[in-house]
Amino acid sequence: ILQKRIKSKSDEKISSKEKISLEKANDWRKIQDMKNDNDKKESNQNWQVSTPKIKQICILDLDLSRSARCKRTLTGHSHVVYSMDYFTFGDEQLLASGSRDMKIFVWNVKNGKLVQEFNDNLGIVYGVKFSPYHYYKYRQCVICSASHDKTICFWDIKQKRKLQIFKGHKREVNDIQFSPYDGGRYLCSVSADLTIRLWDIETSSSLQTFKGHSGVIRCVDFSFRRENRDNVVSSGNEYTICSGSFDSTVRVWDIEKAKELIVFKGHEDYVLSVKYLPYEESCNGCICSASRDRAIRFWDTRSKKEIHTLRGHEGA
């Protein structure tokens, strides 16, 4: 666990008594082209949710012993659905969706009914995530959204109200991720303003700003917590993030120092998605990235080299 206090690099201030434990851009039309081309998918056990068509969300029943079939179709959005997230709250299986129609919908997966709708001056919604921090700390079901209006908002589903709003990015926010440690207290966001920001949800403070990409930043992911410190990335600490950009690179950053550790080059087009692989013996310190060049690449943070490439997709 980090015992070091990270100072805010924004106008927001953090009390010196507080200890924080922390276990030019491409143009707008290029962003739209990329997002319209890139369908998003998320799965949970034998459920898989996809957005194969504009305005629709299909829930697939995945049984490996037979062909997958569409179990339910959720309709309601009037434009492209850009992002989804799944969450179990009590006995409820919930699905949140964010759309170009500037709305967030929350659905009951079991019966397909719309549970809640948020349309409070959001702008186009590019990312939605259920907040683990609000669940673990307050037992609240809260949605976090990233949108074209440059803000990150937290929404209480039960009360249908805005809880928090983070401002700091100068252009649209493309992706958000919660830390897999400290109960999801920390949030990373990436933007078309070429920056990555680290936020403390508990204090509503911007802790760090990461700069280095030369193109719109599309995606970000937190590293998992590691008990074994022997494989610390490039003389940094065990807390890192990785990001993917329209500059075709994947970059690894030291969270504590906001320092760029590694730049992976190999993709020939926009990087659309990045993900740390679980810290197991076979993939310790590895990152996976997907690109508009139709390739999926695996990177080793220890050797700083590409270790494998998967090809087969016919489109981005």
UniProtKB/TrEMBL annotation:
- The residue intervals holding the WD repeats read 74-117, 166-209, 241-263, 264-309
The family database entries (SUPFAM superfamilies) matched by this protein are listed as: WD40 repeat-like (SSF50978)
The question of whether Repeat is a record keyword is answered with yes
Q: Which GO terms describe its cellular component?
A: transferase complex
Top-level division of the source organism's lineage: Eukaryota
- Classification via SMART domains: WD40 (SM00320)
Q: Tell me, what's a Pfam family for it?
A: WD40
Q: What is this protein called?
A: Uncharacterized protein
Q: Which organism is it from?
A: Reticulomyxa filosa
Q: What is the lineage of its organism?
A: Eukaryota, Sar, Rhizaria, Retaria, Foraminifera
